[in-house]
């Protein structure tokens, strides 16, 4: 790219709605503006490992041995990986595909339509934008997003047509899966099956849909879709339009997460780490980009009620051998802390460590 063209790209694509998609579709783009250049001093070691798979149907098995086996598998997956794949979850593959298609249709809309969803506050019920938090990001990430509150109050962008109906059904189904998984995880911690569900008031849980668009990037080795971070909440359930792009940090090495069609990727989030007093830990992960195809992912974050103060479970704490490792914090305050600051590892969780 000529110097003048590069300079134009630097000035024309400021942190505004849809700027990465617009930038990626620019006909003269051969390199990324310097504002998107992401540098990480850590040594890049990427390995191919298969993360655990959980057969969701066995959680409701009438055979005690089968249920005991899947609870043990959940315990090992949460303790050793913090990530696992879920199969036989009961959500129709056609519904998953339609949810991804609806998100693509949203991102394909005109700037004028998407601006209707550009909520000012980081906790606006409907908010779309670019990077992570463009008002504080020192480096912009190669990502556009849509964030929508879907429970206990359901919201939806006004367009595209059909988004509301599809997202309502999809989020209802994922909420059911998440609550069943959390029951199994509760048992795996040695707690009563409904302990976490009741303690976190999951009947009125805070559930948010986060759609991510990662367009092709001419210099993927220099850009980052999302930097290394952990998630807020208890569990995140994620689907994606194609494999490749999601990586988790396991024992200091980056592992590519590959999921078969009709499979949900699940990861432990910060508030399950707090509640379990560190027995299960949220895992740092990131999104990398490529120069060939657009990747869309839809993550559904499941957390406690916004007003719930999350502390380590009293049954998992004693002052002698297992003292509490985290201060209590209201879930809403935690979200505001994370969303108002730069996204970096487990920096928000570090603020509540004792």
Q: Under the CATH scheme, which class?
A: Mainly Beta
User: Major β-sheet, in short?
Assistant: 8 strands, mixed
Q: What is the correct CATH architecture?
A: Sandwich
Helix content: 25-40%
- Alpha-beta content class: alpha+beta
Which range does the strand content fall in?
A: 15-25%
Number of separate structural domains: 1
Mean pLDDT: 91
* Widest sheet, order of strands: 2-3-11-8-13-6-5-4
Question: Considering the protein shown, what is the CATH homologous superfamily?
Answer: B-lactam Antibiotic, Isopenicillin N Synthase, Chain
Q: Helices and strands, in N-to-C order?
A: HHEEHEHHEEHHEEEEEEHEEEEHH
What spatial form do the alpha-carbon principal axes imply?
A: globular
Radius of gyration: 20 Å
Describe this protein's structure:
Keywords: Iron, Metal-binding, Oxidoreductase. InterPro entries: DIOX_N, IPNS-like_FE2OG_OXY, IPNS-like_sf, Oxoglu/Fe-dep_dioxygenase_dom, Plant_2OG-oxidoreductases. Belongs to the iron/ascorbate-dependent oxidoreductase family. This is Fe2OG dioxygenase domain-containing protein. Residues 201-304 form the Fe2OG dioxygenase domain. The chain has 354 residues and is an alpha+beta fold. The protein has one domain: B-lactam Antibiotic, Isopenicillin N Synthase, Chain (Jelly Rolls). Helix content is 29%, strand content 20%. The chain has 10 helices and 15 strands. The chain has helices at 3-12, 19-24, 64-80, 93-107, 111-115, 163-188, 195-199, 270-275, 331-339, 347-350; strands at residues 46-47, 53-55, 83-87, 126-130, 144-151, 206-214, 226-229, 235-240, 246-250, 253-256, 264-268, 285-287, 295-303, 309-310, 329-330. The strands form 3 sheets. Strands 2-3-11-8-13-6-5-4 form an 8-stranded mixed β-sheet. A 5-stranded mixed β-sheet has the order 1-10-9-12-7, with no helix packed on it. Helix 4 (93-107) packs across helix 6 (163-188). The radius of gyration is 20 Å and the shape is globular. The N and C termini lie far apart (51 Å). The model is unreliable at 1-17 (pLDDT under 50).
